[in-house]
Specification:
It contains five helices and no strands. By secondary structure, the protein is mainly alpha-helical. Helix 2 runs antiparallel to helix 4, helix 2 packs parallel to helix 5 and helix 4 runs antiparallel to helix 5. The longest helix has 22 residues.
Length: 116
């Protein structure tokens, strides 16, 4: 099985990084209406995260979507016995999806990426 070949740490690290990268792409990179064109182009410049609850901060939905990846990150560290290598390999992907969720990043585009 996978545990015999790669180990528990590799499985947790792989799962966490795939989740975080996918989370970033879906919520913070893709723009426009996620479920069709019913908005007549009003959301074409907004990411999916910016559209949640019409941009209102700290709603229950947003809190869940912030807390769940943080819990997954903590569980990964715990089950990998707080290994420094796992921490160094998982922190960048965690920050990649965590920082854009903060209110100070609302509607901000770094380095002009995804601006238009």
């Amino acid at each position: 099985g996978i545990n015999a070949e790669y180990g528990v740490s590799t499985g947790w690290l792989f799962t966490l990084n795939i989740h975080n990268i996918g989370n970033f792409l879906v919520f913070h990179y893709l723009r426009g209406s996620p479920f069709g064109g019913g908005d007549q182009g009003e959301a074409r410049l907004l990411t999916h995260w910016e559209q949640i609850n019409h941009g209102k901060q700290w709603t229950n939905t947003r809190k869940f979507l912030i807390i769940f990846p943080a819990i997954l990150f903590i569980l990964c560290q715990h089950y990998c016995h707080y290994d420094l290598e796992v921490l160094l390999l998982s922190t960048p992907s965690f920050l990649l999806q965590f920082i854009p969720k903060q209110p100070f990043m609302h509607a901000k585009r770094l380095f002009g990426i995804n601006q238009y």
